[in-house]
Structures
1.
Amino acid sequence: MDFLAELDYLALGSRLKRLSDHLISEVSQTYKTLDIDFNPRLFPLLQLLYRHGPNSISELSQALGVTHAAVSQMAHMMVKSGLASKQPDPTDERRQFLELTPEAHALYQSLTPLWQAMQSTLQQFGSQQGFLLLPAITAMEQAINQSPLQQAWLAKLNAIENNPSQANTNPTTVRLTGWQPQWREQFAALNLQWLERYFSVTEADKHALFQPEEYYLNDGGYILFAEVDSQPIGAVALKRINTDIFELSKLAVAETHQQRGIGRRLMLYAISMATMVGAQQLVLQSNRQLKAALHLYRELGFKEAVPIAGLPDFPRADIFMEKTLR
């Protein structure tokens, strides 16, 4: 029995902590086997200092997204172990910079091959299991940053207290996932719903919807789904335009599941996926009568711009938008 799994999203933090503890334990055992004296909990700070150089505790805290106290504790451990030293800020005597020692640089170089092996193994494990963990985490982080959970929880509590019928003790779980070949027909059907309602289906649409592997996947693109009870209820696609640019297209949510934030979740998922694979920019083509979609795009940081070369030709497109990722 896994009781935390039974608690579903109520135990999300506990399950992530459990997974983190397990991974850190595995790394610690690997270091011990290889006779490497390094605390894996110092890994983020070592990486940050190595890649970006000396910095203050406050700025390191901001870059890592953790508390000042947590970074101070890690800094103390690094200084105590001879991996870092504190130096006065040349522009402000009241501040100190944390700086890696030569021993830390040597340790970093010696650990790099092992870290490469770890990254490759974890990435391969995720692919074999059919999930995209890092994009999902990034999407959730972005969603939480845009809409703090405390406000959402209190608003929902108020709604439940005013209308107890809104209390759903067994909510339907929406899961985000990558391409599933058995959902090829559903990918087309979800998009045909809105295309046929507002526009006419072009040859380019047919190519994208009925030959998605050729149109999207074979060129390094992605098709992402939202699913409920193992059935797709939403989709979005990323078409690779060149090394640095993806076109976001074919965002669709089943009519039975609209107005639930699923389109936003799919968009965040696609943005995080493009970011993870190194894209510099996302672009999209739309039509001005799709006001709800355009509102969502703008909320997520897309801005109207001049069309770039190399995009598929859709006659209905009368607005071009882009979002810089890096």
2.
Amino acid sequence: MSIKQYLIDKKKEIKELEVKEREGEIVKTKSFATAIIGPRRAGKSFFLFHTIKKEKLEDASYVYINFEDDEVKVAKRDEKVKLIEYHIEEYKQEPIFVFLDEIQSLESWESFLYSLIEKNRYFIFVTGSNSRFLSKEIATQLRGRALTKVIFPFSFREYLKLKNFSLAEHPSSYDISKVKGYLGEYLLFSGFPSLLLENIKPKQFFSDYLDVVIFKDLVERYNIENLFVLRFLMRKVISQFAKEFSINKIYNELKSEGIKVGKGILYSYFSYLEDVMFSFLLRKFSFSEKKSLLSLPKIYLCDQGFPNFSVATKTSEDFGRIMENCVF
């Protein structure tokens, strides 16, 4: 299949997709590209489809390509970068919107994308794999010509929309009870779209997810050699979510077990988890910046499903901690 035919056929596929609404506004500007980033499997590609449908774009108004699609992967680079040219041939006009999905799979994607941005003629949206497309690198690679939009798993408000539930301004006691029931379901499950929209077993999903994060996002990218320490750290992060988190304490635990690892390695491994948006640190607020920086931070996860389905034992306090994690 030619790239030109692919571009046409893809629009038919997108029209037939049932796309759930996501919250959050996008900034439309022709001076910057908007990079859609977020945790793995949070729904970044579907956010592009959501944008296409929300903007009610006609076929002639946009071009979409996923560089990970088989039809695209087998094509030569010279063919892939002609997508604007092929669009004009088909529709006799330039696109207004350009959607570039999994752009990291295009050879020398930085130069191609920058050349499109420099034209100042399109609203450009891009996604990329966490293993090769991190938020802190985008600004450098695109010389400051990119904005970022972060997509997380479904929030509780989005979860309610999936359930076709809307809370009135003055809710009845029945509605209040119903929303409490939905909240309990949400807190003890997950916000990942795949789990909410498809018949996938949660424990298998999170087991596979952790393996992909470890081997694709971390080991391959950062050349991590000490897998035992990495797995140990991730288990600690999951079990201590919404609690104060100390790398020094973990270092001492490993040391007491006779496992030799430098504190610098532990700090590096943890920073990698933040890079791929698996976990996040939050320090105490203080009007003194020094006090804030020196405070012991709390750790939060990108989704409540990790403690729900990855931790063997639970305590009565977990419900409150899960709620705190979701609020974060």
3.
Amino acid sequence: MGQLENISAFVKIVETGNITRAAKQMNIVKSALSRRLAELENSLGTQLIHRTTRHFSVTEAGENYYQRAIQILADVNDLNSSTSNEKIQIEGPLKISVPLSFGLQNLSPLIREFTEQHPKLLISVDFSDRSVNLVEEGFDLAIRISNLKDSTLMARKIAPIRMVICASPAYLEEYGEPKTPQDFKQHHVLQYTLMPSPIWKFNTPNGKEVNISVNIKMSANNGDFLRDAAIDGQGIIKTPTFIVWKDIKSGKLTPIMGEYKVESLNAYVIYPPTPYLSNRVRTFIDFLVHRLQGEPYWDIGMDVDTNS
């Protein structure tokens, strides 16, 4: 086994936290990965990782070696990329996590387009709104819609996510249209469970922040389900425009409270903070940023103040 492969194996072990997890992500047996580590330590004449049946820790020599190793691997990766004048061929596994509704509606065609451009790519997509642990679960990257507070991750913004408050015409006819935040106390709200707080925040036209406790009639962990419930007249939703833009244009849903601003979010692609970023990850990120740049198509031409 070549030294670069052994170095790469060592880096993966350190970043995942144990040999078993690293072997699973590299799709090799644990014993083979242990041999790679042993070969590297024997060639260096020093122990990089102290390991017992119950304990795992990187030695001081291992810490120093890891910092140099990730830089060397990054340099080799850049060298290989810059040497070829031909179109980069992306191959191998790419494991990504994307939000369910945003992924199915807006990322699915892009993912298929990318795989058509790179037929040797082996892509695995997890459609879920849960916040995955990239390192422990072996994801190369994830798409998250948030205000992104986790500073331990690298991130690139790919799209603004604007919010809109809306309800069906039938609901508004039966219950009336709220004109101020205080009016929501008399209305039924359909709430996304990953944003579980019953407190809705508004910025008034004069810039004052108002916090209102809303009456949650129904909650769910999927925006498409809540949209359908709103179309059926069961309540008011505060939701990303990418979920309801077609229904607003068709008249199935009516935007309300447009003069009051609510918090907007962003869609980010996140990945572990390592300079050794594979070509397939780097190229896929660049592809998403390029294809989603500018005004999101779902917001273009919408005759609605998107509260952003």
